[in-house]
Amino acid sequence: MRAFFKALATDCQGRSDEQAVISMVGAAVFFGLEIYAVGVHGQNFDAFGFGAGMGTLLGATSAGFGLRARWTPDVAASVDQVTGRLMEGAP
Known about the structure:
The chain has 91 residues and is mainly α. It is built from 3 helices and no strands. The chain starts with a helix and ends in a 20-residue tail after the last helix.
């Protein structure tokens, strides 16, 4: 199980993939808050509100990573312009 999560959280060169880590932490927080709100307090959990906030966070980080990849001159040639991730075989 540990190898599975490590493969999800790293890119092709073994470095951590921030977007994947943010997504996994967001999913864990979602389930944790849902269990806490329903199990401990007996109230409804606002999944729509949480989802809207998490979607905004993921969109903002994606835009930031994409802009960083396009505007960093020393690695711009080795970065995929669509995803912002480092391509395999790049220096």
